[in-house]
Amino acid sequence: MYCYMDLRYVVLPIIYLIFKCMHFQLKPWGHFDDLWKTDQNPIGKIAFFFLIIISTLLFLLTSIKLPLRMTIHSIHFQAGDFSGPLAISLLCSIFLPQSSFWTAFPIIICISPWFSSLVNMLQSFLYWFYRTLQAIPTLNIICFTQQEGNLEIEAVEIEGSEDQLLVEMTLVQNSSVHEAYCLDGSMPAYHLHRGFGAGASNWLLQFEGGGWCNDIESCLERAKTRRGSTLYMNKLQVFSGILSNNASLNPDFYNWNRVKIRYCDGASFAGDAKFDNGTSLLYFRGQRIWQAIILDLLPKGLGIARKALLSGCSAGGLASFLHCDNFTSYLPPNSSVKCLSDAGFFLDIRDIALNHTIRSFYEDLIYLQGVEQNLDKNCTSSSSFPKQCFFPQYMLTYIRTPFFILNSAYDVYQFHNILVPSSADLHGHWNHCKLNISECNTDQINILQGLRKSMLAALRFFYNYSRRGGMFINSCFAHCQSESQDTWFAADSPRMHNKNIAEAVGDWYFSRNITKEIDCAYPCDSTCHNLIG
């Protein structure tokens, strides 16, 4: 357990001890006027008001927190860190007689760990109530579309498994201090399941995926869904695959502290801008959300992690590339820190109509959400086109932290949205192929083989020269393979050289074996599920 001592807790006892030594009797609030009017002990009066003002500022504006196992990296100084227990203590010091203080103060300190939960619940309820009132005209439409869109997914996640791990959501209480908001202004959130045993000091953080929004219209729509607001998210999250706490399903990371970082900004946690035209308001604060969540986790034990892995799926996998080195900077220098991207290696390629669809999409996103300022400085300064550094193939060279790339060479999202977007297939010639790979004709298969070749070409330098890197590039038509138990670690999971994904990642992270696996071309891999519909 990682405990902090807030130096503000000693302020009030010190005040009382000072006055006791001065033989100055503090009185309840009801006698405050008598204290001011009397001419006795003027020094005590002045000292009293001076110390009250100073202590009030300390309580409300500043905190200095020392961990009980202190290192220079784990001291936390934070302005604007309001403390409910200490504010109540301050009021008690004014209203209660001095004789009662030494009884009341320890009681307040003892129950203080529950204050944050109560405040968090109250804030969540009030904010939910406020947003509900605002949304009354469109509430029925929102509820209908959300229920219809999520019904099948929720049934898959919950039905048929009594042993699934459901983890509660934690809202970041101090998000307003960092101006870290979801698209709609709601508080960001994560799900934390504590580690145990030998893994109690190790941490795995998983970025949630969910695409992007690159214009005001799509971001406004996104803000009304779970992709842009914690108000519409399920408060319980299924932890499976790399997040499972079952040793038989997740042998290397089951007993680590595991965190699912919820995605609600639409720019892979990289934006820092705001849109307000007087009618609509959008917060593009992905970078601040990332920082606020890390700062919230540091005092919970992340700050003294012995081992850590930052991972993510899809847009969250892209976030792993973007924030890998920054993640390392928060942790002790003797920690073993590595990063993993699952289905996040999005390629800068032309679509079948020879248009740069994804490049144009990202350019609009970067401009709208203020992303460029947060891209890797070494990459942007070395490129004549800095926005390219949003693509992993260009930024990968500059990442110093050991990295593992998990991707399908025929990634379904890239197949459907980058190689063959609807704008490039106006007559729907690819519709059947997209739904069932066996329906693809010879020309279409050849184009898909070109997608694989483009990915391997983009990874060639990393494969040949990265001494600490790892990869698992299979030939399954899939997208995100680390969070699904079927593809992560199961009897029928995809395999290469008799090794499944979980074993490959574990061998790489713990340096048990060199892991750089590249599959043969489709359709040679019989272990693939190829669920692309």
Would you write up a description of this structure?
The chain has 533 residues and is an alpha/beta fold. The chain folds into 2 domains: 4-116, no CATH class; 135-518, Rossmann fold. It contains 18 helices and 17 strands. The protein has helices spanning 11-21, 32-37, 42-61, 84-95, 98-111, 115-134, 139-158, 216-222, 286-297, 315-329, 357-369, 377-382, 392-395, 412-419, 431-435, 442-465, 485-488, 501-509, and strands at 4-6, 62-67, 76-79, 165-171, 189-193, 202-207, 236-239, 257-261, 273-276, 281-284, 307-312, 336-342, 403-408, 470-474, 495-496, 499-500, 516-518. A 10-stranded mixed β-sheet has the order 7-4-5-8-6-11-12-13-14-17, with helices on both faces. Helix 1 (11-21) runs antiparallel to helix 3 (42-61) and helix 4 (84-95) runs antiparallel to helix 5. The longest helix has 24 residues, at 442-465. Residues 27-32, 68-74 and 134-162 have low confidence and may be disordered.
Please describe the structure with a list of short key phrases separated by commas or semicolons.
single chain, 533 residues, alpha/beta, Rossmann fold, ten-stranded mixed β-sheet, 17 strands, 15% strand
